[in-house]
Amino acid sequence: MFEIEALDVSHWITRYIYPFARISGLLMVMPLIGTRMVSQRIRLLLAVAITFIVVPILPPIPHVEAISLASFIIVLQQLLIGIVMGFVIELLMQVFVIAGQLIAMQTGLGIATTVDPSQGASVVVISQWFLFMVSLVFLALNGHLVAIEILVDSFRTLPIGFESFSVNQFSSIVLWSGWMLAAAVVISLPAMAALLIVNLAFGVMTRAAPQLNIFALGFPVTMIVGLLIMWLNIDEMARSFPRYMDTLFEFLKKLVVM
After folding, report:
1. Is 63 left (phi over 0), alpha (psi -120 to 50) or beta?
2. pLDDT digit string (tens) for 182-228?
3. What are phi and psi of 65, to 5 degrees?
4. For residues 154 and 81, is the Cβ–Cβ distance under 8 A?
5. pLDDT tens for residues 93-136?
């Protein structure tokens, strides 16, 4: 008869719990899968399925009792690693959301808001439109699969143990947030520049013809010009997304090996 010791059972449990914490942390935050449109039960089942698939190929896991303070700290660290990785990927989507908000403020469409079902908050219609577009492109380019692949590789470059992200890694994430704002400005720059020219033209018209009702004329013109510029620039936005996504995943790969 085979005897099963308590230590072996504890190691078998932690062998699955630790990877599950990191995987579930990523799925809770990453785009599309981590939104409210995907139920928690589906995310849980997906995390369990990925865990059972990747555990056989993972490097050795430290022998720690399942019910102990050290084990609890490891679970929190793995959960933090997954959440940070998902947060970095989510920043890519927020680039286009911020770009839509910048354009909406210039066109006067900032008052047109809708409820985002994925976040449960009111967002600008243009931002929601951009978010739907880049979400479809993200799926078409298998971005979700690449994210899971990088997550699995992170178990080799950032093994399970008492190691977590360093100060330099968190600093690089802050710098990445700055890159997000810069990219949003670059995406919205054509529309903002065109609308600036329109506003300057209206300023000249106001000086030349003070009796002209510039407010009644300016609002619909800026709205039409803004929509026209977005229509002309939408292809370039869609083509720029793969470049930003490549930059994102390169940064994510460097993040887990620092």
Report:
1. beta
2. 888 888 888 888 888 887 887 777 777 777 676 667 777 777 887 88
3. -60, 140
4. yes
5. 888 888 888 888 877 766 666 666 656 666 777 888 888 888 88
Neighbours of 22 (CB within 10 A): 27
Domain boundaries, the chain: 6-255
Other residues' Cβ atoms within 10 Å of the Cβ of residue 69: 9
User: Within 10 A of 102 (CB to CB), how many other CB atoms are there?
Assistant: 22
pTM surpassing 0.90? no
Structure tokens at 182: 């810069």
Sign of CA dihedral 56, 60, 62, 63: positive
- HEC string for the chain: CCCCCHHHHHHHHHHHHHHHHHHHHHHHHCCCCCCCCCCHHHHHHHHHHHHHHHHHHCCCCCCCCCCCHHHHHHHHHHHHHHHHHHHHHHHHHHHHHHHHHHHHHHHCHHHCEEEECCCCEEEEHHHHHHHHHHHHHHHHCCHHHHHHHHHHHHHHHCCCCCCCCCHHHHHHHHHHHHHHHHHHHHHHHHHHHHHHHHHHHHHHHHHHCCCCCHHHHHHHHHHHHHHHHHHHHHHHHHHHHHHHHHHHHHHHHHHCCC
Alpha-carbon torsion (212, 218, 219, 224), positive or negative: positive
Location of structure tokens 């704002």: 181
Residues 6+ apart with CB under 8 A from 46: 27, 33
